[in-house]
C-alpha cells in the first residue's frame, strides 16, 4: 500500500474576497519529490504555507504525516523542515552562531560542521550572515531547514539567486535527502530543476492544478519538434504523424512520433540530395508545457498556423 505522507483534498484558501487556491487535491508518497509549478500568483506559496501550518485552509482537508498541520502543529513541526522564500536572519550574527541558535531549538539536530559541510558553507562559518552572497544565504536557509533530519521537507523556490554550480550542489543535497527517505515538496520557477529532480509535478494556474504527473508524462501531452531551414521554393514532404508549419525559410514539424517522422524526413532529404540547414529534433520540454498552459490558448494559436489552415 502507498505510504501517503501529504494529503490535500479540495483545498481552498481565500484572502478576503480573493480566492488564491481553488479546490486542489494532491497525494504525495513517502520519499517522493513533488514539484509545484506555476506562473507568478498561481497559488504555490499559499498551498505550501497551508501545508506548513503557517496559514489555515479556508476549506478542504490537509494532512501531513497523518496530522493536521495547524491543530497538531507541535507534533508535525519537529518532523518537518521548512525553507521559506524569504527567511529571516539576524545579519550581524555569524553563520556558526545562526546555526547554533537553530540547533538549540531543534530536536536531535545534526552538528554545525555536518550541516554546513552538507551545503558547502564549511569555510564560511565565521562570516557574518549579512556578508553572505544571495546564493550562500539560500544555502544557509537550506542548512537550517534540514538541521533536524526532517521526514518532510518544504522548499519554496530553494535555488532562486544561486549560480549554476550552487544550484547543482543544492540538487545533490536534495537528492541525498530523498535517498534517505525524506519526502520533498518543492516550488520552483526553474523548469529544468523540476525536470531533473521531481518524481511528479503539478502545474498550477489561477489557484487550480491544470496538469499533473511524472515530468515525462506531462511532457508527452505536447508533440516533439523537428525544425530546419530550407529555401521557400523547395517542395516539402508530408510526415505521417506531424503537422507542418512554414515561416519564411524556417520549417517546423510538430510530431507525435519523432523517430519515425524524423527517419522519413532524412530519407526524403537524402534521396533528393537536399541539405537541411540548422536541423534540430527534440521532444517537448516541461518549459514548453508550462508556456503552453501559461499562454492559456491552444497550440494552433500559440505557434505559427498549420500550413493546411492557410
Ligand atoms: N496575504 C495575502 N493577502 C492577500 N492576497 C495574497 C496574500 N498572499 C498571497 N496573496 C495573493 O494570492 C495569490 C497567490 O499568491 P501565492 O504567493 O500563493 O502565489 P505563487 O504561485 O507562490 O506566486 P510566486 O510564483 O509569485 O511566488 C496572488 O494573487 C497573491 O497576490
Polypeptide structure, described:
This protein is elongated. The chain has helices spanning 44-51, 73-76, 95-104, 112-118, 134-146, 164-179, 191-197, 215-219, 258-271, 286-295, 299-302, and strands at residues 4-15, 18-29, 33-38, 59-64, 80-83, 152-156, 183-187, 200-205, 208-213, 224-229, 242-247, 250-255, 277-282. The protein is built from eleven helices and 13 strands. It has 310 residues and is of the alpha/beta class. It has a six-stranded mixed beta sheet, with helices on both faces. Strands 11-12-10-13 form a four-stranded antiparallel beta sheet, covered by helices on one side. Strands 2-1-4 form a three-stranded antiparallel beta sheet, with helices on one face. Adenosine-5'-triphosphate is lined by residues 15, 18, 20, 38, 40-46.
Question: What attributes does this structure have?
Answer:
elongated; six-stranded mixed beta sheet; 13 strands; binds adenosine-5'-triphosphate; alpha/beta; 28% strand; Rossmann fold; transport; 11 helices; 2 domains; four-stranded antiparallel beta sheet; 310 residues; ATP-binding
Amino acid at each position: 500500500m502507498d505510504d501517503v505522507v501529504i494529503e490535500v483534498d479540495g483545498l481552498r484558501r481565500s484572502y478576503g474576497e480573493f480566492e488564491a487556491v481553488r479546490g486542489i487535491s494532491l497525494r504525495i508518497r513517502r520519499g517522493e519529490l513533488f514539484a509545484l509549478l506555476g506562473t507568478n500568483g498561481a497559488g504555490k506559496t499559499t498551498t505550501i504555507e497551508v501545508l506548513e501550518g503557517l496559514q489555515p485552509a479556508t476549506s478542504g482537508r490537509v494532512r501531513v504525516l497523518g496530522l493536521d498541520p495547524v491543530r497538531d502543529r507541535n507534533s508535525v513541526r519537529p518532523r518537518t523542515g521548512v525553507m521559506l522564500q524569504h527567511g529571516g536572519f539576524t545579519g550581524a550574527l555569524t553563520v556558526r552562531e545562526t546555526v547554533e541558535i537553530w540547533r538549540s531549538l531543534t530536536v536531535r539536530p545534526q552538528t554545525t560542521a555536518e550541516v554546513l559541510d552538507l551545503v558547502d558553507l564549511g569555510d564560511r562559518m565565521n562570516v557574518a550572515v549579512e556578508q553572505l552572497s544571495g546564493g550562500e544565504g539560500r544555502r544557509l536557509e537550506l542548512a537550517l531547514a534540514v538541521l533536524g533530519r526532517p521526514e518532510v521537507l518544504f522548499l519554496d523556490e530553494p535555488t532562486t539567486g544561486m549560480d549554476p554550480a550552487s544550484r547543482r550542489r543544492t540538487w545533490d543535497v536534495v537528492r541525498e535527502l530523498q535517498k534517505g527517505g525524506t519526502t520533498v515538496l518543492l516550488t520552483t520557477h526553474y523548469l529544468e530543476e523540476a525536470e531533473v529532480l521531481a518524481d511528479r509535478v503539478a502545474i498550477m494556474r489561477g489557484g487550480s492544478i491544470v496538469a499533473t504527473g511524472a515530468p515525462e508524462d506531462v511532457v508527452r501531452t505536447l508533440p516533439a519538434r523537428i525544425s530546419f531551414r530550407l529555401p521557400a521554393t523547395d517542395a516539402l514532404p508530408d510526415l505521417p504523424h506531424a503537422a507542418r508549419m512554414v515561416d519564411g525559410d524556417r520549417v517546423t514539424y510538430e510530431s507525435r512520433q519523432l523517430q519515425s517522422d524524423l527517419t522519413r524526413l532524412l530519407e526524403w532529404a537524402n534521396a533528393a540530395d537536399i541539405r537541411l540547414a540548422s536541423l534540430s529534433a527534440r521532444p517537448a520540454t516541461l518549459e514548453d508545457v508550462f508556456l503552453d498552459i501559461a499562454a492559456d490558448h491552444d497550440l494552433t494559436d500559440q505557434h505559427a498556423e498549420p500550413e493546411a489552415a492557410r
